[in-house]
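Hello again, I could really use a second opinion on something today. I've been staring at a protein lately and its backbone has me curious. Can you walk me through what the tokens say about the fold? Take your time with it, there's no hurry, and the full record follows here:
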Amino acid sequence: MGNKGKLFFFCGKMGAGKSTKSKIVAAENNAVLISEDDWLSAHYSLQIQTFDDYIKYSNIIKPFVKNHVQNLLNVGVNVVMDFPANTVKQRAWFVSLCSEVNSEHELCYLDVTDEKCLSQVAKRRGEQPERAKFDTEAVFHHVTQYFEAPTVRENLSLVRVDEYT
């Protein structure tokens, strides 16, 4: 592995605290924090009106993000990606990003109850009114139907964080 940076990424339902945890992990590991929300709002804020729009534009930025992250990892920079890794397919993308440049990864799984997530979503809606359109209970349930908890078969370097730690 040598002089390669390490990639940190996150899994957890909407409202589990992935963005909050990503800032902590970035500070603790002297890492560059890259936020999907920041990239999307900077480039496509007016185009994203629905969940399908989000999926479309998220997929559009991935090749650029991948190249950028791999360049950082190759020069020894640790990277924290505040992007969802909530499905097997999403996690496989992160792992391939690392394996292609021979760098290590760490997946932080925030295992939080639906009730706690919904409470956090409601709180965030109040603190960030611009997110109110997407930070709803209906969107939470829609997104959660696709959530897949990580399994041993995925061969991940996994750190599990439950709401009691």
Summary: The first strand starts at residue 6 and ends at 11.
